[in-house]
# Entry
Amino acid sequence: MSVRTRTQTRVSAYALATDEDRVLLTRLADSSPVFEPGLWHLPGGGIDPGEQPVEALARELREETGLGLLSARLLDARSYTAHRLGVSTHLVALFYAVDLAPGTPTVTAADESTSAVAWLSRAGLRDTMLSPAAADGLRILGP
# Structure
């Protein structure tokens, strides 16, 4: 008997927010639908049907960081495949350089895929600590 795997396509908008030598990252919770829990990831997420990418980015930033989006500039797009929780996902990720309203980052949406948010030093980050999208995002930013 064969096991059926569900496949989905997801388009997500991600924020590349920097502050001197730090980058704003979120930690993936156990309910993360695409990438493994515990990894550091970029703030952002899925674009709902009919939602504009920058609107989705602003919504996700509020939920995952509590911070408001002031401006966003599209930098790049990448594609990923992943298998998690019995679902194969083809993810298209849109990467935006962003400016955020001042404030202390705080996860505001309970029971979501984000368990923590923090400004982390770029120098201390290794690819093994990051989701594939976060690792690519840091490469897009450059040194």
